[in-house]
Amino acid sequence: MNKENEILKSLEEDQKKITTLQELNELKVKYLGKKGLITELNAEIKNVAVEEKKAFGQMVNALKEKFLNFYESKKESLEEEILNKKLEQEAIDISLPSKKVKRGSLHPMTRITEEFEDLFVSMGYTVYEGPEIESDENCFQKLNLPKGHPARDAQDTFYLKDEYENYLLRTQTSTAQVRAMEDHTEKGPLRIVCPGKVYRRDEDATHSHQFMQIEGLVIDENISMADLKGTLELFCKKILGEKTKVRFRPSFFPFTEPSVEVDVSCFKCQGKGCALCKGTGWIEVLGAGMVHPHVLEMSGYDSKKYQGFAFGTGIDRFAMFKYGIPDIRTIYGNDIRFIEQFDRKDSE
Question: For residues 219 and 187, is the Cβ–Cβ distance under 8 A?
């Protein structure tokens, strides 16, 4: 009992001196270390009479518990004090001028591609993507352009080395239509849009050797030109504005018959005539037509049962119209200043 009282008295005095975590840990070593006061007292149990061992053990455990309770409480108090001092020292002065954090912005091509996709998906279309490296068969022959066809001359193409006349970078997203029709093994109704990159030898302010297209394809029974016209009028008005006027002119594409060119009223002069529309009041935006029976048959469809329409346009061109971009080359220039401005343009 004398030893217990000595330890209790010593502990009470030491508790008053503790001001840091280091001192607290040193105190733990003093009492519970290998040669600590409580540890040595516990070792004395072997010298205690048998009938007194239980009471002695309970006394030692009570001392140990008393110290540990103090240790945990004091440790929590000291750590909280350290944290508060640190927060006080590292407080942010909110009166200082802030640093401007640069943030990303969607590229105009991403914006308008997503807008196209959202519109057509809402109309029941499925987005279908094909490879950019295509065979000559899919890129031309199955679109009714056999070898030697004069319409091929309008699409100077990038053929792969050692694969001349076999594989090339696709010149139009219509190749994805061929793949979609062949993948659709049931040969039933089909409604898809195919966005993606295409490649041709064009280099001026309004053309690029690489650009983006989006194609649409609808195949079903009893499809007519009226369905095509209604679809394209809705598309142009939703993208360019409800006041946009649309006109259709006869044209020629090997993979559609009949074929049309689609013009929209100039968004800059509202059809009055200006430098942009070259005084005509109209701007050509896409080509379309009824799918040629040969194209349907080459992909396994019965042209006597099914009809379809197809249309295609340059996404870059629509981006230039919508955002007033004068030179297509700036779209691919990787200038962050160019990209940052489109958040503001969309909000307008």
Answer: no
